[in-house]
Amino acid sequence: MQQEAGAAAREAGAEDRAEGRSRPVIDVRNLSLTFETADGPVYALSEVDLTVNAGDFVSFIGPSGCGKTTLLRVIADLERQTAGQISVNGVSPHEARQARAYGYVFQAPALYPWRTVERNVMLPLEIMGMSSAERHDRAARYLDLVNLKGFEKKFPWQLSGGMQQRVSIARALSFEPDLLLMDEPFGALDEITRDHLNEQLLRLWERTGKTVIFVTHSIPEAVFLSSKIVVMSPRPGRIIDVIDCNLPPDRTLDSRESQDFAEIAHRVREGLRAGHSYDD
Amino acid sequence: MTTEALGAPARPSPGLLSRIFAGRSGPLAVVCLAIFALWYLGTVWLNAPLLIDRYERQGEDWSITRLAEDAMAMERPVLPAPHQVAVELNKSIFQRNVTSKRSLVYHGWVTLSSTLLGFAMGTLLGIALAVGIVHVNTLDRSLLPWVIASQTIPILAIAPMIIVVLGNIGFTGLVPKALISMYLCFFPVTIGMVKGLRSPDPLQMDLMRTYSASTGQVFRKLRWPSSIPFLFASLKVAIAISLVGAIVGELPTGASAGIGARLLVGSYYGQTVQIWAALLTAAAMAGLLVAAVGMVERLVLRRTGVRP
Hints:
The structure holds two protein chains of two kinds. By secondary structure, chain A is an alpha/beta fold.
């Protein structure tokens, strides 16, 4: 049942991508965001243009302070732009948020410590008014998907950092949004756990055909996961380059040693250098 | 021989004293002993002038031993000796019928009932004010100064007014006393809960926003659960001062029952032993009430998965 649904979604996603009739999920035009601070204005984003199509896996990469998290927060309607237009699923970010269009994964797991793992995953479902039976069903399904079967009754502090972040991913997936916004979700994890979760996330994306926007400051992570890499640079935050990145879909961690991988990683580094990201 | 060699390196076994002081009971016993010693010294020292005066008037010879003996057996001492208070406690708690007006159990119950009623009302009021302050900007700016100002008025000054005003409109007995308790104990609950309801971190709040949760949902699923540890910290303070409020409320009414009435009657007739017995009963009640709140806290926190 679950596999069938996955297969159907995969087919739909593949079709979209193959036939090039992908519709834009996110459309950003000439967008700027300035924070007014006591020390004067901070130009977090400056004249950003970007289109994300359905089924894309887009990474925002750049040094800290380049506005990648801010751009993601604007898409999520957690910040408001000061100039320019943005649409999410054809409507404003505010309306998209009201329609619960996206699942958001934060840098930290942000689990509620008084809730068990299972009840943390059920939190959005409760808020969206799902029946108890459906909630349990979904929690079980998505905890299984992130390989956390058997941990339902544990409290967050009983889990490792990587497991907690997996719970937060299951929570974002549980209400089945078509759009997944991930803000350095693996940034605080050790490299071994990170590699493992990267592979799992890639398989998940292939299986479900979701649109994913993924903020990172790791070049290998971006190249490995993405179908499109958006290179950003700081002061003011802007987009330097958008790199198409079409490694074979069945890639594994070993593909990171391939020639193609190295070439794309090189282009990303070139982009970062062009944006003065390596300057002192 | 071999087993010894393989075992843990021999450590000198801890001495008797260090074993006693490893736990909590050792230090506690020392503090208690010190208090008793000082109390007995104080009894002799404070009662001595009266006794010496009496000996001299009657032209009697007296020695330090006799002075000490007499100082601990006076009927109306300035400071009664601990054993006199213990005898009085035993008499008025265990020897008397609990419905008797001379039973401390009876008086304790009268005070306890208004303490608990006041505590319940104060907690509800405190939480309601905190919820208002956290959710309504106007209340945040307008209410908090008044809440703080309310606590700068000495309770002894307004307690008689509350009792008189309420008595005039037909409320006597339990309710006015409970209102004084409430007046004292809503304050720590409000302050603690304002902090508690604001304790969720920005990430936890953002998460609710991404679900476009309503204010009510944010309250039920995030603010309220995060505030529980703050609530219990406040409740421990609140229940103790609620007891103080109930006792103070019994003083100006000339109430016939309650720990406060017992203190008042004791001071009218110079019954210092009775006053001390009532005071110790009040202290024990406060201790038990705080411990009871602590127990509920542990039960609730265990259920909500707080790390032991």
